[in-house]
Structure formats: structure tokens, C-alpha cells
Specification:
By secondary structure, this protein is of the alpha/beta class. It contains nine helices and eight strands. It folds into two domains: 117 residues, no CATH class; 140 residues, Nucleotidyltransferase, domain 5 (2-Layer Sandwich), CATH 3.30.420.
């Protein structure tokens, strides 16, 4: 993916071959039953290119089957371009911009973006941190909860959406929570951080009970103008993550429904975890997202 002149962004056959190489680097396997070795391409013009037949389950399939592209009428080369655009834009790319660049409707571009975010979602991720490693934890609030949209300003005060993020060794894991209280936060910490880790937080009481859960817990006192404590505690990395996230949500997406917020967090996590500082460039980042397209579907009947 050296540039937008690459045929995979403009030619359907090149895009299909590219996706087949990613999904089946060795041998084509049947996504219907997992069969390998009894799959053969279907000839003739009636089915069109890219169809395969599995002699085991007697099923027909293409590279779209069992992926985020299934039952989509959008050309594959537009899918490949959409993935590249969404993964290479540091603060995201709006559905309106996708709809203009891809030549599809806004509704289609919106749905495509959500399917791609589904492909970005990690599968069964283990806990982060570990012995001699630190994990920074912090919470932030932005926007307005769905139930309070359109209400008077006085009613909306304090009704923001809550987000909790963990950052360790260049990896971020972020969660939308309905209520940001000590019980909720501590469960997130316990479920997602190895107990051998040292936790770094600010002086928020949400984290007071964490010292018994992890190998260490150091705090930084922001109220005293402290950004790195004498013990080396800091939350600068997680706050940098929030900075990029908020600029993307306010400057690019502008509006986000509360029920879809976790998908956007997955998107920002994905780009953070696969950024240049971690040795991942745009082409490889897009490749990782394309690999994640298998086995994931969204089946909304309409764009809500």
C-alpha cells in the first residue's frame, strides 16, 4: 500500500486477490465448516469471479463470507480504501468524508465505518502490565448522555459520558462505563491488569482500594501542580491518549451516541496500540485491521 495509486484501491480483482492473500495465505479454507483441502474454485461466468466450492459441506463461498464484508453490495476495493483511511487517520475520519471519498451514501459509509471498528476489536485480549511494569489509569468525561440530549443546560450539567482508560508499555485499553464509581473502576482494574503491575493514578478516591490488588500503587498530585511524583508516578501517557481521543471526537466525529461510544473507543485504542511509536506504519496497521475482518459481523437492519 505505497499510495492511493495502488490497484487494490481502484480495481475489484486486485482488491479481491489482496483480501484472499490476507485471509488464506497458504490454502483456501471453507469459512462454512473450516474444511481445508477439499475446496476448489468455481469456473464459469454464471457465478462471477471469486467463488469457491467446498466438497465437504457442498457449500459455496467467497472471501466476503463470514467477514465484515458479507452481504454488503459495496465493492471490495472501496472496503480496502475505507480501512486504509480509517486506520491511517490519527484522529479518525468522519462518515461524511468517507461517503464523499468512496462515492457511497452517507448511511452506507456510516455502517462501513462501524463494521471496520468491529474488525479492529481484539479477540480475547489478556491482561496488560506485569512484573516490573507500570500501568497508568485515569478517567475522563465528555459529551452528554443520550437520556439528557436536548435538555436545558442546567439539567445536562454533570450528565457527561464516562470513560476509563488503562495505558501500559504503549498499549491502551479503554472502557465506556455507565457510572464511574469505585466499584466499577476497581473491577476494570482487576479484570484487565496483572497483579504484579505497579499502578499509577492521580489522587482520585476511585483508586484508593487498589493498593491491595497490585504490587504497588503510586499517585501523582495534580492539585499541587505535580505531573511526575518523586516516586516516578505519572499519568501523562493516559492523559495524552485522552487528548487525541477528545480532539478526534470533537473535531472529526462531533456527535457520538452513547450506545456506540465503545466502538469509537475500540478505534482509538487500535490506532494507539498500532502506531508508529510501536513500530507499526500505515500499511501494516491497515493490514492488521483487514486480518481482523474475518469472523466478525454487524447485522443492523438500518443505520441507527
Amino acid at each position: 500500500m505505497a499510495g492511493f495509486s495502488d490497484p487494490i484501491f481502484h480495481n475489484e480483482e486486485a482488491a479481491r486477490a489482496h483480501l484472499e492473500r490476507i485471509r488464506w495465505p497458504q490454502t483456501v479454507s471453507c469459512p462454512l465448516n473450516g474444511c481445508v483441502g477439499r475446496v476448489s474454485p468455481l469456473g464459469g461466468n454464471s457465478m462471477g469471479p471469486g467463488w469457491y466450492f467446498c466438497a465437504d459441506c457442498r457449500g459455496k463461498f467467497t472471501v466476503r463470507t463470514g467477514s465484515i464484508y458479507e452481504r454488503s453490495h459495496v465493492a471490495l476495493h472501496k472496503w480496502v480504501l475505507a480501512v486504509h483511511l480509517l486506520t491511517s487517520s490519527k484522529k479518525g475520519i468522519s462518515a461524511h468524508q468517507l461517503h464523499r471519498m468512496l462515492g457511497v451514501t452517507y448511511k452506507t459509509a456510516w455502517f462501513m465505518a462501524h463494521r471496520i471498528r468491529e474488525a479492529m476489536k481484539p479477540v480475547n485480549p489478556g491482561p496488560i502490565g506485569g512484573a516490573l511494569k507500570t500501568v497508568e489509569a485515569d478517567e475522563t468525561y465528555f459529551g452528554t448522555k443520550d437520556a439528557y440530549r436536548g435538555k436545558p443546560k442546567a439539567e445536562k450539567r454533570g450528565k457527561k459520558m464516562a470513560v476509563v482508560s488503562l495505558v501500559s508499555e504503549g498499549q491502551a485499553r479503554t472502557f465506556h462505563v455507565d457510572r464511574c464509581d469505585a466499584v466499577t473502576v476497581r473491577k476494570i482494574l482487576k479484570d484487565n491488569i496483572r497483579w504484579q503491575s505497579t499502578l499509577h493514578t492521580d489522587e482520585s478516591p476511585l483508586y484508593f482500594g487498589s493498593i491491595k490488588t497490585f504490587a504497588g500503587h503510586n499517585t501523582v498530585k495534580h492539585t499541587a501542580g505535580e505531573y511526575v511524583s518523586k516516586s516516578g508516578a505519572t499519568t501523562n501517557r493516559v492523559e495524552n491518549y485522552f487528548s487525541v481521543f477528545k480532539r478526534g471526537m470533537k473535531g472529526v466525529y462531533q456527535h457520538c451516541s452513547e450506545k456506540h461510544l465503545q466502538r469509537y473507543l475500540v478505534e482509538f485504542d487500535f490506532r494507539f496500540n498500532h502506531r508508529a511509536a510501536n513500530g507499526v506504519e500505515d500499511a501494516e496497521r491497515a493490514l492488521i485491521a483487514l486480518k481482523g475482518a474475518e469472523g466478525k459481523r454487524l447485522t443492523y437492519r438500518r443505520a441507527v
